[in-house]
Amino acid sequence: MKKMNIKDFSINPFTSIGKEWALIVVEDEKEVNAMTIAWGSLGVIWRNNVATVYVRNTRYSKHMLDSAKRFSICFFDESYRSLLNYFGTVSKRDEDKIKTSKLTLDHLDDVPYLKEAKLVITCDTFYQTPLPLENANQEIKNCYHSSDEYHEMYIGKIKGIYQN
Predict the structure, then answer these.
(1) What is the per-residue pLDDT across 79-92, written as a single tens digit (0 to 9) for each?
(2) All structural domains of the chain
């Protein structure tokens, strides 16, 4: 992986996150996990370059993100689409997805990532907050959630961006 200058970084997040998906990789004191995301953003807040990801409160990775305080976002080429689907439908509660997938775990900036990724963003979490349903409009309430589910928003300060 080659570290990029953030000034040279350019992707379309609407495509890369929303259509092609990505994996969040997180490691706490006991284990490592990866899960597929299709919600996220890249931008600037409080004078920091950031990546924001959203994780449903029922996902196994949520408790890991809460305690680990760092994560990576790994982007893959289209040949990994079925694996991204697998990482989004199977829970770490049921199996070790990284081991089963035979992807290679490594670390950049002391943050876990998967070596097969074409692009990796490493982050330190510096803000998180729940996105409760009572603040959503009715269309969102009707389409995406049951009454006991919500998403947690994690804003990560970008530590590094790496290209394979």
Answers:
(1) 999 999 999 999 99
(2) 2-163 (2.30.110.10)
Q: What pTM did the predictor assign? A: 0.94
How far apart are alpha carbons 19 and 4 in whole angstroms?
A: 23
Residue type, 136: A
In three state form, how does the secondary structure of the chain look?
CEECCHHHCCCCHHHHCCCCCEEEEEECCCCEEEEEECCEEEEEECCEEEEEEEEECCCCHHHHHHHHCEEEEEECCHHHHHHHHHHHHCCCCCCCHHHHHCCCEEEECCEEEECCCCEEEEEEEEEEEEECHHHCCHHHHHHHCCCCCCEEEEEEEEEEEEEC
Burial of 87 (0-12, 13-18, 19+ CB in 10 A): buried
Report pLDDT for 65: 94
